[in-house]
Amino acid sequence: MFDFTGKRSDNFIVGLRNTNPPSPGENLTLWDYTLCGQYPGVVPRNETATLYCQQHLQPFRYVILQFPRKSSMNFREVEIYTFGL
């Protein structure tokens, strides 16, 4: 489960992977990870958006937050919870 509290983070994607994340400045290819989920639309200003991953996924080491190019990545806090470990 992912909770996003912030000003605006529209249509963001949450991905998971076990291989090393890209180095700073290196681009990540879209879908070069396992999809957890995508938030469908605009996160209301100063509201919390919650996104749940699919059930029965294998454990992953890295979480990837990807935002559309025209959207801004703007949040105050990201909380990540795991269940059943």
Number of discrete helical segments: 0
What strand line-up does the widest sheet have? 4-1-6
- The rough form would be described as globular
Q: Could you give a short account of the major beta sheet?
A: 3 strands, antiparallel
Name the helix and strand elements from N-terminus to C-terminus, one letter apiece: EEEEEE
Q: List the domain count as a whole number.
A: 1
Structural class: mainly beta
Rg: 13 Å
> What percentage of amino acids are in beta strands?
25-35%
Distance between the termini: 14 Å
Catalogue the unreliable spans.
none
Number of strand elements: 6
Overall pLDDT score: 76
Tell me roughly what share of residues is in helical segments: under 10%
Characterise the protein shown here.
With 85 residues, the chain is mainly β. It has one domain (2-80). It contains no helices and 6 strands. The protein has strands at 2-6, 13-17, 34-38, 47-51, 62-66, 77-80. The strands form 2 sheets. A 3-stranded antiparallel sheet has the order 4-1-6, with no helix packed on it. The chain has a 3-stranded antiparallel sheet with strand order 3-2-5, with no helix packed on it.
